[in-house]
Amino acid sequence: MFLATEILFFGGAFAAYAIYRMLWPNAFVAGSSYLNVTLGCVNTAILLASSFTVVLAVWGAQTDRGGKWIAFWLVATIVLGVAFLGVKSVEWTADWNESLVPGLHWDYVHYEGGHPVGEHPQEGNPSDTHPGETAHSGEHHKIDWIAGNHDKHIPPADPRHAQVFYVLYFSMTSLHALHMIIGFGIIGVIAWLAYKGRYSSKFYTPIEVTGLYWHFVDIVWIFLFPLFYLIRH
Description:
Layout: H1 2-23, H2 25-32, H3 37-62, H4 67-97, E1 100-101, E2 105-106, E3 110-112, E4 115-117, E5 135-137, E6 140-142, H5 159-195, H6 205-229
Antiparallel strand pairs: 1-2, 3-4, 5-6
Helix pairs in contact: 1-2, 1-5, 2-5, 3-4, 3-6, 4-5, 5-6
């Protein structure tokens, strides 16, 4: 029942994503093109590995491998989860530096006749930067959403619509991260109880249920990864 409510909870966010992507496909392709696919792939591999460690913990309980075995693999799951959030924090920091955080740190520049206009126009010689290219100002880039990019896979987009993409990106990935942090606490308690010898082949339901929760968290990411990172491809 709990996992069913979680599916409904995330279902609303996925429905919003589907509606806005249908309305503004160019903005979603343009927004996705600035996400780091390599780091997304690394995080996908990390979460798949964490699902495997959970399975090993459940299997250890089923086969009476002992509390230390179970606790070890549950702690390994937490370590992998922390690694995932570490990589995600690197991504979020890069997004902040690139001024891709709607409402808090969002910036773009649009060129008309070779001169930058729009939000916080670029300082310096406008001829140094051409339409479709990112320009440097301070410590971050200015993205010309409206003119698009020389890369044919990045179409022109309304910066307001691109902001919607990033609103969905940050809200859904943050929500996913929150579920992971909650999972750390649950898994930590179960690992401690397992270490104390609470579970065996006669009773391991808490481990199995905790594993189902963690698998659900992993499955959500399996959907988030292609929907946000792989649109351009």
